[in-house]
């Protein structure tokens, strides 16, 4: 079994979350999510950003309060596996807003708001990552 790494190192190693990692770097969150926890991160994969024009993404990266609000809407305190999610209808994000959790019976998984979990239960030393197919908007 491979040695577990923290949330940031795991996300970097997966290679599917480069825009999310860039946002964490811009906001100075790398140290926090490398050391603190546990956290559950609903991490949009790169394809989630493909429909957004580059200039919109650039503007978002320049507006730190806005970007932080978006990032914080993807993170929950505590570690929630898919086994835990099946008994929940919502989770409070670190921004204080609630994420809606629903079973996605057609796909055999879960939806977080409108996003589908496409890779679940990516274990980390300080939490867990669930890859999602959309960006969550508070």
TrEMBL record:
Transmembrane segments: none annotated. InterPro entries: Adhesion/Biosynth-related, FAS1_dom_sf, FAS1_domain. Residues 4-136 form the FAS1 domain. PANTHER family: PERIOSTIN-RELATED. This is Fasciclin. It comes from Methanolobus chelungpuianus.
